[in-house]
Design a protein that fits this description.
The complex is a heterodimer. Chain A is mostly helical. Chain A is built from 25 helices and 6 strands. Among the domains of chain A are: about 120 residues; about 160 residues, no CATH class. In chain A, strands 1-2 form a two-stranded antiparallel sheet. Chain A has a two-stranded antiparallel ribbon with strand order 3-4. Chain A has a two-stranded antiparallel ribbon with strand order 5-6. In chain A, α3 crosses α4 and α15 runs antiparallel to α17. In chain B, the strands form 5 sheets. In chain B, strands 4, 5, 12, 13, 14 and 15 form a 6-stranded antiparallel β-sheet that branches. Chain B is built from 6 helices and 18 strands.
């Protein structure tokens, strides 16, 4: 079947002269709306997400995602040769019979034999629970899913775009096609009942063996087969929903207009625009391309802002700013200099502004508070930790706050980059999370708590490092830092406690109970208990100051476990963030932190710098 | 008394209780992966002690009780009633209120679910977990036994009947397999062709299919025989017995079902609506439009996600639905909880206390700097 589909894709446009290199303006094309995964987004976002899904890179072939998408839509016979599928599993490459390459990227054409060969195995794997699949089997499934999705993209317009099919004058007349008009599936639909009847008559008359048919009969049977194959291939092709088909958020794919009867004069007009776009793309006609785009509806402010957001990538810029701030901050610590101090402060400030701008765009685009998924919580916690650091620096005025803010920004920001690579990070939310009030109260409160805790932890690390290695660190400096850690630990406790209880109240509203010992609830409670233990232990003189600082430094691990770790269990009522593959990362982080804190504590104890709190 | 109070108020109790609390929290959470949330909750959080490996350790109830006593003693005997400590005192009081509310909820709350189809009315709440072995005469229960008390070989004589039921096999989580042809004698369909097999309990309680195989005796030759039934079985076995020739027979139903109780009011489902994110099968809202009827008075109401209905001490939440059949069914969780308001009150108190503490601390520091 896959070979037939490939043959059909190659059949389409193969006889046409198509510009190998298109240099058409893509900006307006990228702003066209598409309904994808529950929300209307610009084509620019769609193209980036799809190519990222297939190749784990936004431009594996050095071509911008929009150009790749346009070529796949309007010039599929050429697009199937593009090496965009990443097959990074050696076993899967072996099963597919793929040659080894430095970069394991393969084209759709290269994958087809392997896809056919492994189809029976995939049918079996689809019935197997995900937890019972090996990494290679998951990889195999993912390649099949990606290939199927790409097939839908390739054939999005196969119903309306010209086919390289020869049609006799008689059939052209029946189909109301002039001699020069291109043959399309849409046009063939008018004569399909006739074709079908005649094919049946031929089979009845001559039998099933095509070698016994006359040349004209063979031509007709081939035409019937081509029509049926294209028609079958259009079933369930709902990925490319770009035609507004009603009021509000209703959009349909070109195939849905035919198969589901969603066509209307308005959709016909929009479809014609897409046909014109295809023609302009194939001819490389910039004037027609721009004129058609100009006539299409793509002036929604949200789409424009999202495209801008895609291009600017504010969170990546913010990480660069955090890194710059970190570098200048370290330089400032090495040799005290007011300019270095100011530059590091400036970069931290710019990083925060950039991060806040990115979050503001997301709030505007998604029309909801900024945190609804694990990835979004990372973005928000980054900015909170950095903001709290700025607040701390107001008091410290020695660069310690800036250093802590920069470290927090870089580390949490990089975690965000790794989490962003898993698909669309502007997701619509399920019913229980789809509430503005609780997202704006409980979720923000608890994530502010996470951010505050992480800053407090970094500050505690700084105290440990100073005590362990700096001879010049005076008791007065330490006392100041300890007092600041105490204050920030109280703020951490305030936000995590209130956030946890608000979570309970939300659960009471949604699930009918305040506390259900759900892993996520327990994780939040873990932070609260840890903080209460340390704070009360210090007040009551049960623990030494060194132990207290070490405990505060270890807060980073407690937060990581509560924030990300509980998702590893894969159980509980919270519907977001169940992820796999972070176990080793989290475990490694916990071991590293424990080791680092232990070494620093040992060093401090060895030099007698630890102070008892009694 | 005061001496005891002072000892109970000592901070070392809190200092040693909290690590054990952290431990039980971590162990109880991780164990949910294997045991499921219900069993883990009972074993670790709602228990007085548990065993980790071979070491007995205090469970959640013991630790929370100790924490409450310590905090109460501290509040009563060792609080520094000064402005400087006002925030701490208020926050501690908030925690006491929270734990007290938790205790009231633990001892008084009941939950279950009410399932009603579009156009239907119901006031029956079924328990989520408690399975019952039940014999009904029409709709009336004439015999019932919690499933934990059902055991192989148990023989029961339902009231006002002349037949007996002997349990031959019971399983909390049953599998179903084909019964061997040689073993089909004496069985009534569907037990003739299928048999129940013992399976390990599923960590998710709802997934356990509880069932029994039993023999009926004394119901007449036509009705005596071997039967089986299980939880949610759509057509549980029925025994028809005519008291006299020519009279309409009485139908007894033998079933495994969830424990039921009645609400003092009824719910009629007018419509159930799912709202999807466009172009997906991901719901963004569920909504049940209902009519509440109490003492002959009716009024409309809407229940949707995060917007429950509260009436006469009951709270009804949109928790699930079933749209696979001829008509849609809504599933509403029904909770009766006398401690419901405590978390709301304690949140305000704790937040106010912590904020007050921070304000006093920061203001005091600024004052001392000045």
């Amino acid at each position: 079947m896959l070979r037939y589909i490939l043959a059909l894709i190659l059949l389409m446009f193969s006889g046409m002269a198509i510009a190998a290199e298109n240099d058409l303006p893509m900006d307006q094309f990228g702003k066209l709306p598409i309904l994808h995964e529950g929300r209307i987004k610009p084509l620019d976002s769609f193209a980036r997400l799809e190519i990222l899904k297939f190749s784990k890179k936004e431009n594996p072939t050095g071509v911008m995602p929009l150009v790749w998408l346009a070529n796949s839509l309007f010039n599929p016979s050429e697009a199937v040769e593009e090496k965009i599928f990443l097959v990074d599993d050696a076993m899967t490459r072996h099963h597919f019979g793929l040659e080894e390459r430095k970069k394991p990227l393969y084209s759709y054409v290269e994958l087809v034999p392997g896809l056919e060969k492994t189809a029976p195995q995939v049918s079996h794997l689809m019935a197997t629970a995900d937890k019972n699949l090996s990494p290679s089997e998951r990889n195999l499934l993912a390649i099949h899913e990606n290939a199927l999705e790409y097939t839908h993209i390739l054939r999005s317009f196969s119903s309306v775009l010209p086919l390289s099919i020869e049609l006799s004058p008689a059939w052209r007349q029946k189909a109301d096609l002039s001699a020069s008009a291109p043959v399309t599936f849409y046009a063939l639909q008018k004569i399909s009942p006739d074709i079908e009847n005649q094919v049946k008559a031929i089979i009845k008359r001559q039998g099933q063996d095509p070698s016994k048919y006359t040349a004209s009969e063979q031509e007709l049977v081939t035409l019937g087969w081509q029509f049926k194959t294209i028609s079958d291939a259009g079933n369930n092709n709902k990925l490319f929903r770009v035609i507004p088909s009603g009021t509000g958020q209703e959009y349909a794919s070109p195939w849905e207009l035919i198969n589901d009867g969603k066509g209307s004069p308005a959709t016909e007009e929009e479809l014609q625009n897409w046909i014109s776009l295809a023609a302009a793309w194939q001819k490389g006609n910039a004037q027609d391309w721009s004129a058609t785009l100009h006539s299409m509806n793509h002036d929604a402010a949200r789409l424009n802002i999202e495209v801008l957001y895609n291009h600017i990538a504010p969170f990546q810029i913010a990480i660069v700013m955090f890194v710059m701030s970190l570098c200048f901050s370290l330089a400032n610590f090495a040799g005290k200099n007011i300019y270095l101090y100011r530059i590091s402060l400036g970069f931290l400030f710019l990083a925060i502004v950039t991060q806040c701008a990115g979050l503001a765009v997301r709030i505007y685009v998604m029309e909801r508070p900024p945190v609804g998924t694990l990835y979004e919580s990372i973005l928000f916690v980054t900015v909170i930790a950095a903001l709290v650091a700025l607040l701390g620096e107001r008091r410290l005025k020695n660069g310690s706050g800036i250093l802590c803010g920069a470290i927090s920004g870089v580390m949490i920001g990089l975690l965000g980059v790794s989490m962003a690579g898993e698909g669309d990070n502007m997701k619509v939310l399920g019913a229980v999370l789809n509430t503005q009030f609780w997202l704006a109260t409980h979720v923000l409160c608890i994530t502010i708590g996470y951010g505050w805790c992480l800053f407090t932890s970094v500050l505690a690390h700084l105290v440990l490092v100073r005590q362990a290695f700096r001879k010049s660190a005076t008791k007065a400096d330490d006392a100041d830092l300890i007092q600041i850690i105490t204050t920030h630990s109280l703020f951490s406790l305030l936000f995590t406690t209130v956030g946890t209880i608000l979570g309970g109240i939300w659960a009471d509203q949604s699930w009918g109970r305040f506390w259900g010992w759900d892993p996520k609830e327990n994780g939040a409670l873990l932070i609260v208990l840890w903080l209460i233990w340390l704070i009360h232990g210090k007040i009551a003189g049960q623990i030494s100051r060194l132990f207290w600082v070490c405990g505060m430094a270890f807060l980073s691990v407690i937060v990581a476990v509560a924030w990300v770790g509980v998702n590893l269990l894969g159980i509980g009522l919270h519907s977001y963030g169940f992820i796999e593959g972070v176990f080793w990362g989290l475990g490694g982080f916990a071991v590293l932190e424990a080791g680092l804190i232990a070494i620093l504590a040992y060093q401090i104890l060895g030099t007698g710098k630890g102070h008892h709190a009694h | 008394m005061k001496k005891i109070g002072f000892r109970l108020a000592h901070p070392d109790i809190l200092f040693w209780v909290l690590p054990f609390m952290i431990l039980v929290l971590v162990v109880g959470t991780i164990s949910q992966k294997e045991l499921g949330i219900l069993v883990a909750q009972e074993r670790y959080f709602s228990s007085y002690f548990y065993v980790l490996g071979f070491v007995p350790l205090p469970g959640g109830l013991t630790l929370i009780t100790l924490l409450f006593i310590n905090l109460l003693a501290k509040f009563l005997f060792k609080s520094h009633w000064s402005w400087a400590k006002a925030g701490t005192i208020v926050a501690h009081f908030g925690v006491l209120v929270l734990i007290l509310g938790g205790a009231i909820t633990y001892f008084t709350s009941h939950d279950g679910y009410l399932m009603v189809g579009e156009g239907d009315t119901s006031n029956i709440v079924e328990d989520y977990h408690q399975r019952m072995f039940v014999v009904r005469n029409g709709q009336d229960i004439i015999y019932q036994l919690p499933f934990e008390q059902v055991r192989d070989g148990l023989k029961v004589y339902p009231l006002q009947t002349e037949f007996s039921i002997t349990i031959n096999k019971s399983c909390f989580n049953c599998g179903i397999s084909r019964r061997a042809e040689a073993d089909q004698t004496g069985w009534t369909s569907p037990g003739k062709f299928m048999q129940l097999d013992l399976k390990p309990s599923d960590p998710q309680d709802e997934k356990n299919m509880t069932g029994i195989e039993f023999a009926v005796d004394g119901a007449g030759d036509a009705m005596n025989g071997k039967y089986l039934t299980f939880d949610k079985f759509p057509k549980p076995p029925q025994i028809e017995i005519a008291s006299a020739a020519g009279e309409k027979p009485v139908t007894y139903t033998i079933a495994i079902e969830r424990k039921k109780r009645e609400l003092p009011f009824s719910i009629s489902l007018q419509t159930f609506k799912q709202d999807f994110h466009p172009g997906t099968d991901m719901a963004r809202a569920y909504q049940s439009t209902i009519t509440v009827t109490d003492n002959g008075v009716s009024w409309p109401a809407v229940i949707q996600m995060n917007e429950p209905l509260r009436y006469r001490g009951y709270t009804l939440y949109q928790s699930s639905f079933d749209v696979t059949g001829d008509k849609p069914y809504t599933v509403l969780t029904v909770v009766e909880n006398k401690g419901r308001l405590f978390p709301y009150i304690s949140t305000l108190i704790i937040a106010a206390g912590l904020i007050l503490h921070l304000v006093i601390r920061i203001a005091g520091r600024r004052g001392s700097h000045a």
